[in-house]
C-alpha cells in the first residue's frame, strides 16, 4: 500500500499547481474597496485588537478572556463561521506535575453545499498565547496584532463569500463538481516556551492539533482523507507589527504563493493604498515587506525558524511563513506592547492578508466596491492620528 503521507503530498502538489494557475487577480477597483480596520485596531479602545493586548499565558484568566473575545466576535459579528475548540493538557518545565490546559480555536467557513472531506481550506494561522516571562509580557507583535489581522480578514471577506456562493447556487451549477474551497482560521495556544525553547517546551497547541487533525478520518470516498489533508495552504503570521519588516521566502515549495502575495503588495503600494509608504514616510518605510519576489537559486531558510508550522509541515502540509528576519527589536521584551506597534504597518498587513485571501477565494466581482475611496481615507486618518512611540520616549 502507498504511504498515506506520500499520497497527501501528491494530492497537495496537484492542488497547489491548480491554484497557482487558476485564480483571478483582484481588479484595481476591488483593491481600493478592501475595508481597513480603522479604529477597531486602536490599542486602547479598538474592538478587535485592544482585548488581546493583555497577558494571555495558557490556562490563565487572560487566556480565557481572549478565547471568549474570539468566540464572541465570530458568533455575533460573522455568525456563518463555525467555531470549534480543540483541547489538550501537558506538563511544563515550570509547573511540575500540574497539567496545563491548551485551547486551540478552529474557525471555518465552507460553501453551504460542502460536506466533510470534500472541501479544501485556505488556512490562516496565528498563535494567541503570550510568554510567561518577563512578568506582565503583552506580546503585541508576538502575536496579538496577527490575531487581530485575521479577525479583520475574516470579516472583510465574509459578505463576498456569501454573495459568491449564493450566485453559484442561483445559477443552477452542478455544485458537486464546483468550487468546494473554504477558509479556516486557527488561533493556536501554547506556542511560547515556559522556560527555554526545546522540542518539548514549545508548540504545545500546534503539536496537539496537527496530530488530532491527522487522526480525524473522513469517509472512505472523500477527496481528503483527514482534516489535515484538507489544508490547501497553511499561512502562518508571526511577529508582525514592527516598522520596516523584511520577510524572506522560506520554502521553495510555496515560493509561488509568496510571489502572488508579493505582487499584491507591489500593486497596493503602486495604488498608494499602503499607509506605511504614504506621503511623508521615510525611504525605508517605502521598501516592500516581501523582499524576495525575484528570488533565484536554492538558498531557502525554511528550517532556520522553529514555529507553529513545524508539526503541520512534518505531516506534509505546505506552509507560507510570514515572519520577519531579523526579528523585531522588541521581541521577547517588556517593550513588546501596544505602544510599540507601528500602526501603519499593522494596517498594511491587514490589507495584504485580506487581499490575498480574497484573491485566493476568487472573490473578484463579489466585494462591495461602493465605498472604495472612503475606506482607504479612513485608514489613513487613523494611521496619521496614531502616535507611535520609540523606546526612548517610554
Walk me through the structure.
With 394 residues, this protein is α/β, with parallel strands linked by helices. It is 34% helix and 12% strand. It has helices spanning 4-22, 28-33, 61-76, 140-170, 204-215, 255-270, 310-313, 343-360, 372-384; strands at residues 82-90, 100-109, 120-127, 181-188, 231-237, 319-322. Strands 1-2-4-3-5-6 form a six-stranded mixed beta sheet, with helices on both faces. Helix 4 links the parallel strand 3 and strand 4. The radius of gyration is 20 Å and the shape is globular.
Radius of gyration: 20 Å
**What characteristic shape results from the CA principal axes?**
globular
* SSE series: HHHEEEHEHEHHEHH
Proportion of residues in β-strands: 5-15%
Q: What's the helix count? A: 9
Helix content range:
25-40%
Number of strands: 6
Distance, first to last CA: 62 Å
Strand line-up across the major sheet: 1-2-4-3-5-6
Q: Main beta sheet: strand number and arrangement?
A: 6 strands, mixed
By secondary-structure content and strand pairing, the structural class works out as alpha/beta
Overall pLDDT: 89
As residue ranges, the low-confidence spans are 387-394
